[in-house]
Each structure stands twice: as C-alpha cells, then as structure tokens.
# Entry
Amino acid sequence: MASQQELVECLASKGVLPVEWRDTVASVDRALFIPDVFEGGDFKADPDTWSRIVYSDAPVVTQVNDGEQTPDGAFRLSTSSSSMPSVMLEMLALLDVHDGHSVLEVGTGTGYNAAWLAHRLGDHKVFSVELDPAVVAVARENLRHAGLRPTVVVGNGHEGCPGGAPYSRIICTCTMREIPRAWLAQCPNGRIVTPWGSSFFSGSYATLDVVEGEARGSFSGYPGFMWDRTRRAGAGRVVDLYHGEEGRKGATDIEPQNVIQDDPAFFTSLSVTDAWYRWCEADDDSGEATLWFFADDRKSWATVEFVPGAETYEVEQYGPRALWDEVRNAFLGWHDLGKPERSRFGLSVDRDGQRVWLDDPCHVIGHP
Ligand SMILES: C[S@@+](CC[C@H](N)C(=O)[O-])C[C@H]1O[C@@H](n2cnc3c(N)ncnc32)[C@H](O)[C@@H]1O
# Structure
C-alpha cells in the first residue's frame, strides 16, 4: 500500500514542493480526505489501486452531477474533488501565504486544502466556504479525523465569509466568471487567487492585489477547475447535444485549430462568454476533425470541418446565433491587435465591475 511519504517524494521529485509547505504536506494524510469509493477507485474492491491514486499527484473526483442520482450512461459532470496536489501548491505559491496570515478558501470540497492551510497557519486563521451542505458535512468530518478545526461554513462563495474578515488572502478553488465585490471588501489589503474565465476559455488563474478598493493583477497558468456551481458553462457529449438538425452552410479559410490555441481562445473568451467548443477527431486515421461550438443555452451550435491540406473549410451554423461568426470576429480582432499573448493582459476590479486590459490598465479591452 502506498503512503503519504510517496506523495511527498513524488511532489519533491517534480520540484513543486516548496520548503515552507513540506512539513504540512508530509503531516496531513490525504487518505483522510478521500472517500472509500470515488471515480476510478474503490477501497474495498482494490485497496492497492485506491491508495496508489490517493497518494499520487492526481485529482480525485469525489462527487459527480451534484451528488444526484442520474440514469446509467448519463453524462457525468465532476462537481467536487480533491484537487491535484501540485496544482494546490501552484495556487498556494501564487497566493504567497506567510505565517500569521488569515485565509478564506472558497470551495471547501474534501477539506484537504483547508487542512493544509490550517496546519500551516493555525485553525483560527482559516475559513472555508462551500455551497453544497452535503460536501461540507463530509469535509468537517474529514478535518476532525485529521485533528484540524478551521471554520467551514455552508454558503455561496460570492458572499465570501464575513465572519472571519478581514482576510490577508482569498483563494478560490472553483472557476469564477467575475470577482465578487464581497471579496474586495473582505480582503481589503491582500491578495486574491482564483481560476477565472468564461465558457469559451477558463484556463487562467487571476492573481489580484487589492489596494484602496481596487483589485488588479494578471493571468497565468492553465488550471482546469470545476465551475462555480451558480454560473456553470455548458457541458456534455456531442451525441447529447446534436440531434441531426441542418444548419446554414458556409466556408472559411481560417484553419479551425488556430482559433482554439490558448492566446486567441483567451481573447475570444472575453467577448464570447457563453459558448464552448470541442475538437473531435475522426476515428478513421484520415486526420480530419470537426470543431464544434455550442451555446451554453443549447439553442445554437456551429461546426467547422478540418481536412488536412484543404484551403477552405466547411462551416455549418444552427440556431439564433451564428457562433462561428462570433468566434471568427473575435479571432480577427485578436489579429488586429498584433496577436498578443495572454501574459500581456490584466484584470482590474472595483465597485464598477471588472475590466480586462492590454498592457496598461487604461487600455481596456472588455468587461467580461
Ligand atoms: C475543486 S473542488 C474544491 C477542492 C477543495 N479545495 C479540496 O481541497 O478538496 C470545487 C468545490 O467548489 C465548490 N463550489 C462551487 N461553486 C461554489 C460556490 N459558488 N460557492 C462555494 N463553493 C462552491 C464545489 O461544490 C466543489 O466542492
């Protein structure tokens, strides 16, 4: 059976375990936060595989479909988890936690991250808020077994947790579309780190420092967190979303892969906030693929057919929106700006809302 020491060694060998977190990671047993049965693991049926996964640098999905019973074969949306330990450390590095800090975590999940924070900073310095009461009940129990007692409350993370404010740091472990105003008020001179984005591209951390009522910062990383449950993106399998409708036909000379590369996808996500894509390769070794776009409300879709070596690609668009046209226009707008990398963009948030800017906070690009 694997042990916590193996997780420590795995993280150390990857070079992602900073000295200030080493004692905490070694001391807090991840197994205490993982249920006997999870997606891909069953302790009773196969304890070796269960412990190998638990003590590896892998995320463990602990809840799907909000814990609701769904028919066999239904799409399984991951809705709670213990995050990948190296990703937890990556976020904590961005958070720049120091001894003496008080921290609010949004998205308690299993309680493992709250346990790390409580071990390092002390129980009374750590608050964690989680929307799902059933998840909170299990997290509290997990923490009790680990001998740690941070304050865990049921609530919508948008409200923060006024009871423990002011905080030196806020860390959010679900993807947010907007930085809630309550966080600025509750972390008035500190730092906020959260996965951030819209349906089209949500693979960015926003790291924001709050000064005099304004949070300002940059984007980095490629996190793949679950959505804020109150504002999810669309999801599902193509077979569940497409039922043989005929769309409006057209063509494009833009190679479809180009629009879903990280930098243009990030830029497109600032205006196309409520649609998402899926790249589906043909299973016949032809190299052909279909790029699907779906609106979150499922009323519109579009496809672009990629054929290797072709100069133009067939387009089909269905529903009240012309999703390909929206994506193409954003992509061309990104070209007009000189194809800036994501690292040149920044985010500012104040009581008027959030603004994304390019190079300089005065050069506002959008209000996603
Ligand atoms: C990736 S899991 C959190 C992992 C967790 N930090 C850990 O260490 O195990 C994301 C969690 O965020 C929670 N969540 C989603 N939307 C939320 C919201 N609006 N307010 C509070 N929690 C939310 C989910 O229920 C889920 O448990």
